[in-house]
Amino acid sequence: MTEILKGSIVATSIKEDMKMRINNLKDRNIVPTLGIIRLGDNPSDVSYEKSIIKACEKMDMQAKVFEKDTQIATEDLMELMEELNKNPRISGILLFRPLPNHIDEEKIRNSISPDKDVDCMHPLNLEKIFEGNLGGFSPCTPKAAMEMLLFNDVELEGKDVVVVNRSMVVGKPLVMMLLEKNATVTICHSRTKELKEKTKAADIVVTALGRPKFFTMDYFNPNSIIIDVGVGVTEEGKLSGDVDYEDVSDRVKMITPVPGGVGSVTTTILLNQVVIAAEK
């Protein structure tokens, strides 16, 4: 029988630890506060922003939004970043990406203080991950995927894991985290040849392709453990992961649902890293 890996259970476990630490910070008159920088009013950004604010309120944390026009110059965005870097009331900074094409993203990534970089975009924080140092900030989505595996006692040592994503936001950091647990990792992407054969032969598959219902049961085997990171909207207007959940959910060993899986842990990871930044 398939085990459904629900994100709410993992998130609750993390929050229990956070509550005690937030109370300790309160005793020092410190309120963990996230500064959110949003350019324009992209619906997905606005939706995520609302969910973060709601989550902060529930945890006695704060979120302050800094909305700017999409036409903002690189220098002006760097200036805002520096203001938040110096603001003692801002514990961590989240900048919604991708940025408009005219923005020099390298300059922006280098302008955020590594100590407030709760979404791990500064090169120094990313470098630590690729050196095997996982004690600092991590990109929230791959960290959430790892938490799903570890919380559910999924054995990683020696296991064959296929990660279908090669971005610096998800795929590459996740590969490094898996290697630290002695997994054998294959990284794939949209142009990988014989993708179906590779995923079907793996013990664990992490999908982050961004194609709703792309992966049917043909891509897996009855012992597959599936971590579905992808989020998209079907032609019918319904939210879906990369995996065709209806086709697969009762025919594999473990699977995360969408919604209700990795995404619900990602926001909690973000808030936890804000608390870590406040503690520092």
Question: How would you explain this protein's 3D organization?
Answer:
It is built from 10 helices and 11 strands. It has 280 residues and is α/β, with parallel strands linked by helices. The chain has 2 domains: 30-115, 3-Layer(aba) Sandwich (Rossmann fold), CATH 3.40.50; 140-263, NAD(P)-binding Rossmann-like Domain (Rossmann fold). The strands form 3 sheets. Strands 1-11-8-7-5-6 form a 6-stranded parallel β-sheet, with helices on both faces. It has a 3-stranded parallel β-sheet with strand order 3-2-4, sandwiched between helices. The protein has a two-stranded antiparallel ribbon with strand order 9-10. β2, α2 (43-58) and β3 form a beta-alpha-beta unit. The longest helix has 20 residues, at 7-26. The protein starts with a strand and ends with a helix. The mean pLDDT is 96.
Considering the chains and any ligands shown, give keywords for the structure.
280 residues, alpha/beta, Rossmann fold, 2 domains, six-stranded parallel sheet, three-stranded parallel sheet, 10 helices, 41% helix, 16% strand, globular
